[in-house]
């Protein structure tokens, strides 16, 4: 799958129906910011497209006009408007759609096609790393789409870093070995947090690779792995992005433990 399309699929997993836009600091994105973004988008889309767009996102003229004018009894009610979440979600995807259109237009204008590059001769160390990754990737695993994951995102990221350092493989070669784009792997490695990046294809692909490596090397499951299986059951960790932000009532402090997905799972099991 091309990189941008891969990005779009990952973004859709991160922003399901009802998704609420947040600022980098973890606060709700203001309705005023969204109104400006909507106005800019509709101006770019052109005259007479507003009705079509409202149908696309599934809101009525009345809902749209009320949100854009801000005619709510309390200004906080704007957050409950269907326009707030649906328009924000659409515009989040539109950022990537815009790049896809620009890429396709550029390719069409130039009439370009993929150029086949001459094979690159690998150094002895890189050749050994490639052979190792090929051997690992060849290990058969049960066909279970998707394969349950029992390592959190931080653990998988640590395993990636350790493997690259020990084997001498490059991040680019590793991304090829696990079947994801380099951008997808890079994006996943930038996250921090047990559930951060769980919607990324790099997460499940890298986990599968390290499971294959464990089987190939005849390494037993760790105590932590066994504990994770007991905690998360047959489905494993949730394959959706979780950056640790939680809803709390206004003025109430948040228990920092709630940012830990394992802690939250243990709480739910006790109920």
Automatic annotation (TrEMBL):
Q: Where is the signal peptide?
A: none
Query: InterPro entries in the record, alphabetically?
Result: DUF7726
**Residue span(s) of domain DUF7726:** 33-92, 147-219
PANTHER family found in the cross-reference section: HISTONE H1
Name the record gives this protein: DUF7726 domain-containing protein
Q: Which organism is it from?
A: Kipferlia bialata
């Amino acid at each position: 799958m091309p990189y941008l399309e891969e990005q779009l699929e990952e973004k859709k997993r991160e922003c399901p129906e009802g998704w609420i836009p947040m600022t980098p600091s973890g606060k709700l994105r203001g309705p005023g910011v969204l109104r400006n973004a909507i106005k800019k988008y509709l101006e770019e889309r052109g005259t007479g497209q507003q009705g079509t767009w409202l149908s696309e996102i599934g809101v009525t003229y009345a809902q749209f006009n009320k949100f854009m004018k801000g005619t709510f009894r309390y200004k906080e009610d704007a957050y409950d408007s269907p326009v707030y979440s649906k328009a924000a979600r659409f515009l989040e995807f539109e950022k990537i759609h815009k790049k896809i259109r620009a890429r396709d237009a550029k390719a069409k204008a130039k009439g370009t096609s993929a150029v086949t590059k001459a094979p690159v001769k690998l150094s002895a160390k890189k050749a050994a790393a490639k052979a190792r990754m090929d051997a690992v990737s060849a290990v058969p695993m049960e066909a279970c789409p998707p394969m349950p994951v029992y390592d959190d995102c931080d653990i998988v990221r640590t395993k990636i870093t350790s493997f690259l350092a020990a084997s001498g493989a490059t991040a680019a070669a590793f991304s090829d070995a696990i079947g994801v784009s380099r951008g997808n792997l890079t994006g996943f490695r930038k996250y921090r947090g047990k559930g951060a990046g769980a919607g990324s294809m790099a997460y499940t692909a890298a986990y599968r690779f390290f499971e294959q490596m464990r089987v190939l090397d005849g390494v037993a499951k760790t105590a932590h792995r066994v504990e994770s299986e007991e905690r998360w059951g047959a489905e494993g960790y949730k394959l959706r992005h979780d950056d640790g932000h939680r809803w709390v009532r206004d003025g109430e402090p948040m228990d920092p433990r709630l940012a830990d997905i394992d802690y939250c799972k243990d709480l739910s099991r006790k109920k």
